[in-house]
UniProtKB/TrEMBL annotation:
The keyword Lyase does not apply. Coiled coil: none annotated. Keywords: Oxidoreductase. GO terms for molecular function: oxidoreductase activity, acting on the CH-OH group of donors, NAD or NADP as acceptor. Belongs to the short-chain dehydrogenases/reductases (SDR) family. Pfam families: adh_short (PF00106). Signal peptide: none annotated. This is Farnesol dehydrogenase. It comes from Frankliniella fusca. The keyword Membrane does not apply.
Amino acid sequence: MSGMERFAGRVAVVTGASSGIGAQIAEDLVRAGMVVVGVARRLERLQALAAKLAGQPGRLEPVQGDVSTTEGVKRVFKWVDDNLGGISVLVNNAAIAAFTPVQDQDPADIERLVSTNFTAVMVGCTLGVTSMKKHGIKDGHIINVNSIAGHRIFSVSEIGSCVAYASTKHATVAMTKGLRADLQALKPAGYKIRVTSLSPGAVYTEMLPDAFAKMVPEKEMILQAKDVSNAALFALGSPPAVEITELTIQPTGEFM
Ligand SMILES: NC(=O)c1ccc[n+]([C@@H]2O[C@H](COP(=O)([O-])OP(=O)(O)OC[C@H]3O[C@@H](n4cnc5c(N)ncnc54)[C@H](OP(=O)(O)O)[C@@H]3O)[C@@H](O)[C@H]2O)c1
């Protein structure tokens, strides 16, 4: 069976599901029939999304969690294992932005940035694969929501330096590629876990600074969260023998 139908009734975990891209992906997975664990700190946002999606083929399970600590990430995965069982789809999406030049960063901010944008993704991948192995889920799929900032360093004077943020996204690109290589070791046991790095250009969300939106000449030159979610579901819904390893999606004509 191919397409999203094979994931119906199965468990997905989406971090950062309280707004923007994560909220849209969580919504679209629920509409596709999945049981989606939506993770974020703002529980009331998750609860509102769950209420909005009542009556859809799947459901949203709001789980309050802070992925900026390893303990926080572990708590989320333990809750899923205790309450729902194995994970078929993991979308590591939660992140924070940073626009301060590296030399001016507060060390505590650097630590928070790296732990939220990178450590949580790597630990999430580890615990996600552990869950798949424990529950014999051989066709699991991990999507790491990345950025074009994971592929090149650029400077946008209107909003400040993106270097610290881009560093975490570059690290995520490297780790995602490496994870795919490491997962080859599970092939003899029949595991065909797919891994996708999804790299959007600018998207209209709470993360996008107003100054950036103002400097773009046409409104269409910024993506909508729905565009990114469509790309995620394209990767997920591809036939099991097709692995979309890197998917870059930018507004047509984006200057970056
Ligand atoms: N917007 C863009 O232009 C753009 C472009 C390229 C890539 N991206 C990537 O897309 C992904 C989603 O970003 P977005 O644009 O949708 O931003 P957003 O609307 O600000 O959403 C970020 C999400 O991450 C969650 N989050 C942040 N820190 C967290 C923590 N410590 N623990 C748990 N959840 C946390 C937030 O929830 P709470 O605050 O409720 O915890 C929120 O749900 C990110 O990986 C981002 O780097 C965005």
